[in-house]
Amino acid sequence: MTPALATAGLTKRFGAQTAVDGIDIDVPAGSVYGFLGPNGSGKTTTIRMVLGLVRPTSGTVNLLGEPMPSGLGAVLPRVGALVEGPAFHPYLSGRANLARLDAADHLADPRTSRRRIDTALDRVGLLHAAAKRYRAYSLGMRQRLGIAAALLVPRDMLVLDEPTNGLDPQGTREVRQLVASLGDEGVTVLVSSHLLSEVEQISTHVGVMRLGKLVAQGAIDELRAARRASAVVVTPDGSLAAATLATCGLTEVQVSDEGATGLLDEVAPESVVAALVGAGVAVREFVVRRPRLEDLFIELTGEGFDAGE
Amino acid sequence: MPASEAVTVPEAPPTTPAATAPVRSSGGTAAWLRFLRSELRLILSRRRNQAGLGVLAALPVVMAIAVKIAAPDSQGGGEDFLASIVGNGFFVALAALSVEIGLFLPLAMAMLAGDAIAGEAQIGTLRGLLVVPVGRTRLLATKYAGLVIGGLIGVLVVVLAGLAAGGALFGLHGVVTLSGTTLPLAEGLGRLALAGLYVGAFLAALAAIGLFISTLTEQPLGATVALALTSTTMWILDAIPQLDWLHPWLLVHRQLAFTDLLRDPVYWPQMRDGLLVDLAYVVVFGLAAWARFADKDVSG
Description:
The structure holds two protein chains of two kinds. Chain A is an alpha/beta fold. Helix content of chain A is 33%, strand content 27%. In chain A, the strands form three sheets. In chain A, strands 7-8-9-4-10-11 form a six-stranded mixed β-sheet, sandwiched between helices. In chain A, strands 1, 2, 3, 5 and 6 form a five-stranded antiparallel β-sheet that branches. A four-stranded antiparallel β-sheet of chain A has the order 13-14-12-15, with helices on one face. Chains A and B meet through helix 3, helix 4 and helix 6 of A and helix 1 and helix 6 of B.
């Protein structure tokens, strides 16, 4: 299948600083792609290049089958975007701001404008505040208005840059549900975040940026499967348990304060439990621990996911 | 998509694929006009701009009242508009135009030009427009059209306020030309409209400079100050006789030539040259703005 977004060797230098360093992004059509990385890792600059706001120093961008930025006029009408946080005229109402963007879209039908604006506002839960000035909006409302702007017309793809930035947990959950529902409708979504936890549940694919480089990319299930599961036995018979685990084929077996641990890999947990009980180990707890994706990302991005938070 | 199985949003209406959606219109001229209307609404709905129009309108009123108080009995006449006001309120509008062209109207244009690109860049709405997408050339053209129309609205306000104040205090009569003949009021108003358009052309040239400056920065105030300084500097240079070799190339040099419209017959050469200089500025700075903006990285 043609990817919705593919970049090759995409690079942006600002003076001596390389903000984005030769990245090859591959966003499959219909996927929800979590674009992850700490603040300042080059996510927003990448998104700006993808949308034709910033010219790459080198490399290519192919968006929905068209090269960017030359295919901008044909492609961007099919793409809804929220770039680096919401930005609207402070003294206009939410509805008037959307009306302005709709009027700017030379392909949007003015006859359906009002209805589409209200539908978009309703979808992000802002219809009650439509007449309020943007200035009076809370940060969460501003983010949601930004998403509404991306939904004014039906899209084949959405590019949402940090849509949950500054939202409270409830707002984050709502945005997550919204993105997930759009993904379910078949819209390809590229959603960036500096917090894995905010996109992990909804993403089918992820890409991880660090210092301008794409350090990991792939289907989230594959990345998860690549992590090795370990078994933890809580028992007073630590050494006996460890010996049994080793017999079952577990590797890196260790005796711990509370019992024993070992890497499971392909060994079936139930057979390990049976063996432990058969060997007379007093099992108080048996836990299969799959490392969280978060640990992988902390590994990949070095100093922790976001030094700032 | 196993990751999304836990999430259900029942109230979400299904969307149609963009390719078959009925919300798309064919674009074209109507779409241009729609965006231009939106641009004008943006300009006119801004309180600061409304206040600016108020200031533009206040000056002719103040002038009319000042003349009324200072010289209630003296008779008008001569080449000076202010002196002519007493005999005919018509001249309030002309006097106001010739006064406001020096600072007030250029300052108003400078405020609008600062908002045009730099202002949108500063608050971030520029990137929003560009990803809609609005083509950069189209955006620039719409912004320029908005500035020109904004300038014409400013001129119209000055002229109407002048006619209203002058008419109320001194009455409107047939217009005595600088050549000594008298034009019927209707023809005088026609000449006044031409004078307004001539000033509008000057503001349109100023708008081109302003649009260019506006593409250079993300600080609207900086762009505003820069254009106001540019205009004021040209007026100052134009007043230095030693620089007379430079004067024909200054945008402001022939701007008061609209008084030639009050000769009978109208004396055109000065205004023709003035319009050509206006046009040259529009072309040069319009192209400069386009060259600058078409390639610009928008990272604000």
